[in-house]
Amino acid sequence: MTKPIIFLQKEFRTEFIDKIQAIAPNYQIKTDITAEDLSAVEISVGWTKQFSEQLLASDQLKWVQSISAGVDYLPLKEFSDQNILLSNGSGIHALSISEHIIGILLSYYRGLNQSIKNQERKIWDQGAISYDQLAGKNLLVVGTGHIGQQLSKSIHSLGVNVYGINTTGHSVDGFVETYSIKNMAKIVPEMDIVVGILPGTHETYHIFNSDIFEKMKKSAVFINVGRGDTVHTRELITALEKKNFAFAALDVFEEEPLPKENPLWNFDNVLITPHISGLTVDFQNKFMKIFLTNLKSYVADKELSVNQVELDRGY
C-alpha cells in the first residue's frame, strides 16, 4: 500500500525534513510531485493555485497548513465541504510587523521621511522639518490578535496609549480599553493613530471606508498591515484628497502589485511599502514550531492543537 504524502509546497532545510519524518514515519515527504502523487497527498504545507484543482479533486487531502497568517486566498468553502482541516501561520510575523509599524511612526513623527527627501535633493533646511512626539499618542489597534498584542507590548515603553478593536469588544491584556468592531466609528475621532491588522473576511471587507476616514482627526495617521481589501481604496484616495487625516502608511493593497497608474503613488503624505511588513528573520524555525506541534497531534489523533482556522469565520 502506498504511503500517504506530506507535500511541502516550499523548500525547507534538511533538519526540518528529518524532524517531520521522525514524527510521521508512515508518511512520504515530497517537495517535487507528479500528477499521480497528488492523489495520495494527505497533508499539504502551503497552497498554490498550480495544484489546487488536483488536490481538491482527491478524497485523500485531510489537512492544509497555511504558511501565511491570512487565509482569505484559500478555497475555504471547499475545505469546509470536504472536512479538510486548516491551520495558519498566525504569530510568526508578530514581531516583524510590530517593528515595521513602530519604524513608520518614529520616522513620521521625528521628520525622518522629509529628511530623506531633502537629502536626495541636497537640501539643508531645518525649518522645513515638521516633528512631533510619539509618546502620549492614542493608538487604536484594529485587530487584537497575536500581532496587535505584540504591537501593544512593544510600543508601550514609548509611552503610547494603546486601545483595541475586536469582534466583540472583549478585554485583552496590554490594552487600555477594547471596543467591539461595530463601535469603531465612535472611537476613531479620539485616536491619533489607527492601525489595521485585520484578516480578510466578509465582515472586514472595506471596513476602512469614508465613514471611518471622515471621522479621523485631521492630524491622525492611518496604517494598514492587515489585508488590502479591508480598505476601500477609492474612498481612501478621496479621503487623502480631502485631507481627512494627515498621513497614511500602506503595506497591503486590494490589487498587488499596486498598479503604476494608481493615484496613491502621487501623494506626498503616503508611504507605500511592497507587502514587506511580515518578512521575518529565521522564518523556517518559527513556522516549523507551529507545524511540528500540529503534526504530532495530527498523527496521534487527527486533530490540530494550535492555530486551527474556523472555516466559517475565515480566521
TrEMBL record:
Keyword Oxidoreductase assigned: yes
Annotated D-isomer specific 2-hydroxyacid dehydrogenase NAD-binding domain residues: 103-277
Pfam families reported in the protein's UniProt record: 2-Hacid_dh, 2-Hacid_dh_C
Classification via Gene3D superfamilies: NAD(P)-binding Rossmann-like Domain (3.40.50.720)
Domain D-isomer specific 2-hydroxyacid dehydrogenase catalytic: start-end pairs: 23-303
Keyword terms of this UniProt record: NAD, Oxidoreductase
Family: Belongs to the D-isomer specific 2-hydroxyacid dehydrogenase family.
Protein name: Phosphoglycerate dehydrogenase
Provenance organism: Candidatus Enterococcus murrayae
Lineage of origin: Bacteria, Bacillati, Bacillota, Bacilli, Lactobacillales
